[in-house]
Amino acid sequence: MLELKNITKIYNPGQVTEMCLFDKFNLTVDEGQFVSIVGSNGSGKTSLLNIICGSIPIEGGEVLVGSKDIGKMKDFQRYRSIGRVYQNPSVGTCPNLTMLENMSLADNKGKTFGLSFGINRARENFYKEQLSILGLGLENKMDVKLGALSGGQRQAASLIMSTLTPVEFLILDEHTAALDPKTAEIIMDLTERVVKEKNLTAMMVTHNLRYAVEYGNRLIMMDKGGVVMDLSEEEKSALKVQDILDVFTSISIECGN
Amino acid sequence: MVLADLFISTLTQGFLYALLSYGVFITYKILDFPDLTVDGSFPLGAAITGVFLLKGVNPFLVLLISAAFGALAGWMTGFIHVRLGVRDLLAGIITMTALFSINLQIAGSNLAIGRDADTIFTAASTMALLGSMPLMMRKFIVSLVLALLVKLLLDLYLKTKSGLLLRAVGDNSTLVTTLAKDKGTTKILGLVIANALVALCGSVVCQEQRAFSSTMGTGQVVFGLATVIIGTTLFRRFGFVKGTTAVLTGSVFYKICIQIAISLGLPANLLKLAMAVLFLFILILGDRRKDGAENA
After folding, report:
1. Which of A191, B38, B118, B295 is most buried, judged by most C-beta within 10 A?
2. What is the ipTM of this complex?
């Protein structure tokens, strides 16, 4: 279980541009939940993910996993139990390393990076098997540098890489936003399958309202650092894209967008 | 015969200084870190070497001691940059400046190492193997072996898990964080290895010249960067050529260029100017191609 308690987040504290995003923000995500998060720009979706991962500091509050406060842990320490896929496909992979090298790195997550050989050829078939699930032919590109692949292929690889080792949480930060509709569809299907198969707790920020409705078993809409809509699986199953679009539009009108 | 001698000694210089190029290769090419520590860690290796050789310490052991001190200098720059949050360029400048004084403290003054002190080129073990050759050939063989040995070790290291992580941190440091590894520690490790190699180069050069001078570090960063860029530009089209092979070639190529300039009558006072101009040309040529590749 992931719990955010009384989170306070202030950008540029003490400066003229000071902006308080979260003031005593609370959110609880149960184990195995797949939460879709929607909301307009600046509503705090990505900040929320960054706070969970420790990418940005907070001014107050606690981030609890189970009952343990991980708020004091450095970002890289938190990633032991977190897998993350970013909006920009080039952030999730190393462009100058080959697919095999990238997969080997991901496979060694949580272990020591010592003086044994970096690439374990014995694991190559396992990597190929994992990549073949995508149906993109990436299993035949083991010796190709990731920089030579398309954004969609890289994003697919980074999704596989982020869940190659056992993690508890999967953080998806608009991970289909930079992809064409067909590839985005493939990535979303894969995301759902991975989350189910590996029994992960997932949080997905998306601007695609249809994905938010179709995938996951909880939907949250955020606005100005608060949760304005929180739907459970049952409520969500009856939901249509138009319904949340209406709420979305009414919020946007208030903001003058 | 004189020409052949000149050629051999120029190649020797290229091999000796290749050790420095490997170091700069790690920071500049792999870590993407413009490390100016080199101008200080190179004479640091030489200063340590001068002092220990005069005390009669085994010259091969002196190589290792120098490398260890270089590693410390690299760690210092890494610590200043990563833990104290100083920009990469400035962190290197701080260590480099501090080292200028430290080097003089270590050596006391500029040093000349007399013929009675053994170097790696005259030590008993070297003489046992290569004793029948003239000094110039011995220097050539020893420097060639050193350059190739260090290259092989570095190639092997870069294939290990630790080496793979080092390459990843320069390529995409965010990924290293998501692999639950501290990117800062990995960067420091890279700087440690790089400056150990640079100080090792300083040690070898000091043993070859039998001298330490406090200003011998000036321009070594430029030399290192130039050789890395020459090497990688020359072999850009040949993907199978390893980076270390490329910079080794770059180092030899650079020394040949400088030797030609001197042979054509370039006054010694203009040497650094010639180096700067050569470097500028290499940068312009190298970067043009790079831009072209990025736009394509």
Report:
1. B38
2. 0.90
